[in-house]
Design goal:
The structure is a homotetramer.
Chain A: E1 4-9, H1 14-23, E2 29-35, H2 44-47, H3 64-70, E3 73-76, H4 82-92, E4 96-99, H5 109-116, E5 129-130, H6 133-141, E6 145-147, H7 151-165, E7 175-180, H8 195-198, E8 203-204, H9 213-224, E9 231-236, E10 243-249, H10 260-269, E11 275-277, E12 293-300, E13 305-312, H11 316-331
Parallel strand pairs in A: 1-2, 1-3, 3-4, 4-6, 5-6, 7-9, 11-12
Antiparallel strand pairs in A: 7-10, 8-9, 10-13, 12-13
Helix pairs in contact in A: 1-11, 6-11, 7-9
């Protein structure tokens, strides 16, 4: 089978590097171009020495024409705002776009504007499919424009949505208390992710204001069939990879047996290649480097509260791996192609 | 002034060692005896090399008679169950006891039995004062038997109780999502705190079943003036010290201004020597090695949810430091004696 | 092509789990049996939740007969001593053995006895091939008994041996100062690898007495063509995976140009699939999860000292990956089969 | 006793903050001014939340006149180059200066120029006393200008110098392989100390070129009574504080008993308040937050090599604590004033 030529635009960040790691092992893909404005001319193995001896490539300045000429697929790992413009340029030229920024995730340009500022390509929004495969597999098969979900949304939605689908939990009053490693903050050095500052402490950030909130709400509203508002509090902890979303909800019917919630998750995910329902609290350490998800549900009978957890590797299932999973689906390749490795533990 | 002779019973664990660290700097205390059954005969500086050249002492087998003869004060850092018996033996002999186990914290032996098993000295319970100085300072001045609070309860109660006192938040539906370093699990090696297992992941544990739950409820009920049931989920994260309690509650009156909650905390803690209300999400890194507490309150206007946070060092304000603070209060010494050091950051 | 049935004996430790991770992706291997005495009857996914949904298998009690009947290949990840006995039983029954313990590494039973105690199967020693593929590839092609090298020796030998081969450095006075993550110490909880003890410090251990010393000496003697004694100091640092060996040696001819040492490494490793010579100090972070090695050489002109470094992932190239590499060689499969993934960084 | 007014110039970095932590507890010191150019106008508790509720002060722009008018003592925690100028301005105005930069450490402006560039105040050099109290206590009693030693030199010199003094080890061929936490690199965010980059790896840096090399050589030459050149390789490891120097040397007389080296250290440090000779490999974790030093010496009889180790907290004994120790000596205060706390472990 001939390999499909693909480009990574914004290839110099952690998500870009993770895409490279996954795609060099993909049997149906030919990594054709790595684009990174500020690093143009650098060899990737100089910036990321893990590729020394494995990947020989040099970052180039992005040029939509060149990408359209050489590649059928483009992954965009750009900052929001910038990504919408690149997506538009490539979409118009017939390139299938998998956008890992937030630009295509929200269906409403107005909601986008509230959280991110004016949208640069609102006309794209109706064409974008939200790339959470477990929720939108059918639509993705024919997608030409994919909004790859955010890391926190992936962990939270996969944990909560099946229980909303099944009307087991109430849409109102959901709380998501999430814990993330530092790679979600990117490669740009800053005080908040300086080792000496974060190496031995934990803290919340963007309390009541993180931009992933409306993205989670949008998908959960779709599951619940009604509008909802949820509280989302992300925390930064001293590890590089991993997101754990601990979610709290009220049961619709407190009389249901305690195992009803986990049973529903098991039913939902029985045939999913990447999602496992575990009967203990999942540990992000068991997902590192893998595209897998572990979810679990508990019922606190004393307080009548449902507790659901989702754990992922933020750079894989929360970004690059999920994008490759989307690619596999829209190309009709086996969904686990290049994503079959188990986690690196310990 | 003559120094008061004190004993530490159960001195070989992390809390015991932390008591030693604090008490060797205490100008009114003479560290008279270190008791540790299984380590009897060991020099402390062999077990804890940080004391080499500073503390010359050998662990002994506990003997209530000897302690009563030599010491006026005993700190107990024993496992629950065992602690009640030692407390009883010492209390009967006139020694003032500061018990760092859970044995004297719950007022009801029946509630204790639900969570810990049969109580070994229920007759002590009416005499014990809960040693959260910021909440029970007056009673502590004359206490002879102090139940030093648990680490999670300290962080959670100091964050939530003032808002319940002031009837700003509803007693029902409180959720406490807490994150702890590994020292809370003690020095005994076990898989869950083996570096290779915990070094790069985060997970919840004892979901809907952690024994600190009734202790937090008891104190918050006292604040709220009514019974309450809360959801408490502790998480283990890759750091040695620190507890962050992220607490979620509903406002009694959603029309109150957003800053009402932080204002109330500021009013409450204006004169407290160890508690600071900060206007950002507190970071446990800023409390390491110190007896201080940082609390903060936020109002999420989109969802009508109050978010309150408390951060401490679990071994200091969550254990040994708090016990010394109690001692200072009951002896009438300045409350910050031997506890005045700022945190070690970075 | 039919898959070759293989067994892992001692499958419950970290090396065993890493073998499982690698072998489930191996296209020519059928993982037939997982043996682990104390865990017999456990599902592997209970002990190692990263395999939940991926590997369904139960540990069994080791039985040489059963292994010989069902498998052509056995990986032994057992404690030393125990491993020799299992190796003997399997070798006698015609199973090809890849032993990851120290039992078959030293050619001399007398040297073994000095460091480990009496050898339990000295008759095997003449038949064992030292499984450092880059040094013994030809012999491995027909090996039936492979002594997979230790983690420290792998990093140190690959850095130093080419310079001894080429007579660029003196065999006398070599110093190896090595730094290791905690996984090298295994899964058994112990104080030295308890998170609270090791999480924020660094220290040497087994100074002038680590058992990998004679193994390194044996291979370097082979390179140097003469006996040598070297100083080896391992250190434990707060990370899970990775070994860095910083090696110091005297040049044979101080007049050689500074780049002579790195040039020799480049010449040696030009065609090696797993070894890259880098021009900066290698970082173990860039090798995590991969079978790759990074080496570098420097000349300190001020002091006339050669500094050579080798970095690996101790569980992959230092154990399980190296064993799979040996298997690929002795079966004539492409050497990188199942080992082609790049490192997980960050 | 009246308190001595002191200034900290360059107070916004980690060393400055550590000086604040120590000096607020110093009974004879009045912290009069905190100077930090780029942070002028900021409250220190905003930049370092560990001081919230403890230290109320605002950074100011440095002004030598104002410092000379208000303070008797100035600690300089400035970048090299800048520090020499400030030291000169203050020295001329009669202020006693404790300089924590490298500017006054090397006696020769020519050697300084080789490693750092032109010296900005060479006329100061003859007046500066090297502030390693254990080596220069007498000279420090009357010093007006103190060059507080670097972190690596402190650990290495305290380990090696006594053995050179006693002619037990050879001055030639010394190797220092050092491991440091990240705080030595300061608070300025950069890729090399970004959590995601350094959190799970170890690597050497500035191989054969670290600027602390001539400083160590200068002091060891003084001990040895002859010129020497040594190899120094620093490594960065994933922890915030701590330096371990593992030093290798040849014995002058291989026939000496193995314990001769540790015995000599014990003799040397018998009356030192901060140095302890331990009989195991010291762990930096046992020194965190303390001004103490642990040293140990071993003899590897197989190879005839002496191995000496020194462990410190780089921000305390390696910087701020050592400066306060110098101040205590030159003021005639008890040497441990404000430095008596034991380490924070675990």
């Amino acid at each position: 089978m001939e390999r499909t030529p693909v480009a990574i635009v914004g290839a110099s960040g952690y998500v870009g590097a993770e895409l490279v790691r996954l795609l060099v092992r993909h049997p149906h893909v030919l990594l054709r171009g790595l684009y990174a404005h500020r690093h143009a001319g650098h060899e990737i193995a100089k910036d990321y020495p893990q590729f020394a001896g494995i990947v020989q490539a040099t970052y180039e300045v992005f040029d939509a024409e060149a990408v359209a000429r050489d590649c059928e697929i483009a992954f965009l790992a750009l900052p929001h705002g910038e990504s919408a413009r690149a997506a538009e340029a490539l979409h118009q030229r017939g390139v299938t776009v998998l956008d890992l920024s937030a630009d295509l995730r929200l269906r409403s340009a107005a909601v986008y504007a509230e959280w991110y500022g004016d949208h640069h390509a609102p006309s794209l929004l109706p064409h974008a499919v939200y790339g959470l495969v477990e929720r939108h597999r059918e639509a993705l098969r024919t997608a030409r424009l994919v909004a790859v979900p955010g890391c926190y949304p992936t962990a939270a939605i996969l944990a909560l949505a099946p229980l909303l689908d099944a009307r087991l939990i109430a849409p109102d009053g959901i709380i998501i208390d999430a814990k993330s490693g530092t790679t979600g903050a990117g490669r740009e050095p800053q005080r908040s992710t300086h080792f000496s500052e974060i190496g031995e402490g934990v803290r919340a950030y963007k309390v009541a204001g993180h931009r992933h909130t409306p993205e989670i709400e949008q998908e959960l509203e779709r599951a619940a069939g009604k509008l909802l508002r949820l509280t989302f509090t992300p925390h930064l902890i001293p590890m590089t990879r991993g997101i754990l979303a601990t979610c709290y909800a009220l049961p619709v019917d407190p009389a249901r047996p305690a195992q009803a919630y986990a049973d529903e998750l098991r039913r939902t995910y029985a045939d999913e290649p990447f999602v496992t329902v575990v009967d203990h609290a999942p540990d992000t350490a068991h997902l590192r480097g893998s595209n897998r998800v572990q979810v679990a549900a508990f019922y606190d009978a004393r307080t009548g509260r449902v507790i659901v957890m989702g754990a992922i590797d933020n750079l894989v299932k929360g970004a690059a791996g999920q994008a490759v999973q989307c690619l596999n689906v829209l190309r009709g390749w086996p969904e686990t192609t290049a994503l079959d490795g188990g986690a690196i533990f310990p």
